[in-house]
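Bumping with the actual sequence this time:
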Amino acid sequence: MNRLYLSLAFLFAVLISSHSQDDINLFDYWKYYSDAENSLYKYFCSTGLQLLEEREAAIDKLQTKEEWLQRQSDVRDKLLDIIGPFPEKTPLNVRVTGTIQKEGFHVEKLIYESMPNYFVTAALFIPDNLKDKAPAILNPIGHSTMSFRRDVYQHSIINLVKKGFIVLAYDPIGQGERLQYIDKATGMSRFGSTQEHSYPGAQCFISGYSPAKYFIWDGIRGIDLLLSRKEVDPDRIGITGISGGGTSSAYIGAIDDRILASAPECYITKFEYLYRSRGPQDAEQNLFHFIKNGLDHPDFIEIRAPKPTLIISTTRDFFSIQGARESFHEAGKAYSALGAKGNIQMSEDDNGHGFTKKNRETMYAFFQQHLDHPGDASDHEVETLPLDELWVTESGQLATSLKGETIFSLNKRIVEKQVSALDSKRMNMEEHLSAVPDALTTIAGISFPERFGSEIFSGRFENSSYSLEKYLIEGSGDYMIPLALLIPAKNRENETILLLHEEGKSYAMNSDSLAKQLVANGYTVLLGDLPGIGELGPGYLKGDAYIENISYNQWFAGILTGKSIVGLRAEDIIRMTHFLKSKFSEFNAISVVSVGVLGSELLHAALLDRSIHKVCLVQPFLSFAGIALEAQYKPAFISSTVAGAIERYDLPDLMAALSPRKVMILNPLSATGEPAGKENKVRHLTYPGMVFKHRGVEENFRVAVVDEGQPVYEQIIKWLR
């Protein structure tokens, strides 16, 4: 009888939806809030800008040499802490795979190991007929698939070599011969170079650090290689690189004291202007909690004072020239305080992002002056080498020639240790679970709302089955949350349900049968959009790490400030439940159902909001660590992960901590987005099941799988009752 009732109710709902679509949008009317789709990114911007203002105020107070020296010490400590501990130095095991003789110089094609079995392909350009030890330049390369083999990079390198400098150019991971995601059918990466960095880089952030560590370490070991050469003067080491190479130059120049002269190009700006323009760049260009720690681009320069530094910029670069000028001005104060005003220089030219003749010549002259190697600073036309002549490996790719480690494999071992440590904590069940709520506040950046503000009623629509009411409520940032409230016309249950769908409330209302099925069965249902979703997304910022319609860059924006998308959305879920409590104080229960990735956000909110009595996760992924441990994870999951969480908690811990409340996991997914198999479910769901059993409420934790093609609403309604 009950199944017949449910089937008739389903048919009734389908008939309703086939004749009309419910308009539950609000911002078509409320024009003032028409920029709502950018609410997520602008929340992180406002947070970051406030922190940057605080940094500016602190910098303005610095006057004396002693104060600047203390600032340098503090910045160095912070940088080393947030980049993460570097590995021990192990043998480089340098091998020369070929030598090329050109007019006036020769090239050694090299492979070195910056870590055991972590191979770096490189080329050492050496002037012929050196009589004395020569100055050397380390040259990290920007985001080019061809890396240093590209003609514009070779042009600068060969000019430097012909002026008597030794130059070591090397492939950053994910570029040149170090591609990590090669498609066997095409022999090419399935990603561009920025995505080659960000896809595995996101897994490093899940583990709690920036992949910049690996980029920096490759460069530090490159300096070790240079210093091992008899031709190199160890007291005359310089570094320069453009774009992503400018990033590495800034990082390495700030950290490695062996670098005397540094010339980062087309990178130095200020985060204020990055936030207001292109947004944070790909993974390694963002350091974990960098802005939260009171740091900005000028710190990479100021920490070097009084050592010579040249900021190279272009006026039409996407790395804002205004930011470059302000960084130069600020760094000048540090150099002046340390008595070396002449050691900070800036060159700019009217061009877009890239090399210019004027900037190259300024760079040549800079190194000639500060590495004590005077000569002609003119930029000359040179003959570059054919691309294939500079391949270091036999196949043109380490992945097929030597295989070896990747960012993913290196990070995987770190995550495995973190998971093992977390499993050990779980053995002391009550102590561990009692610490989880504080971890949410600290790591996910969640604050239980101190005020909720007033609602804006925005109209009611009636039909024979339900009434539809539309509202706006205040969000945790400078935006309003759009809500749609569905109230059954009759046979109302004494329970309200908040339904969160990863595709947004309009999709949940008109394309998915679940919302109307719940209403047809007497439940009052609230639908709402969260930042980045539905009417509150996706926003204008896609960024250079836009993978399968997911903006990793927006996620990076939160990591810089110590906030998270999950934390912001969890706060807004709490605001939605508060709205329900204020509307239906006579009801004794609120249940929340999430569909898709929002299961993560729901678990965070529910742990802090005791008014949520029941939690149902439909098609959730099960673990942050699971994503970090999967080589081919689903990009859509990234926004719903919390960077740095797995040292203290993961999603199974949140499920467990909800006991004795009712929790149902319906059709869980693996990290690849496929249905979770037995091993996956055992790995991630055994612990919460064990906790529920230990607390005597084993029946309140349920895992169910609905056969493909069968509606999930039957399971949910049965569970609710």
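The tokens above came from a reply further down the thread. The chain has 23 helices and 20 strands.
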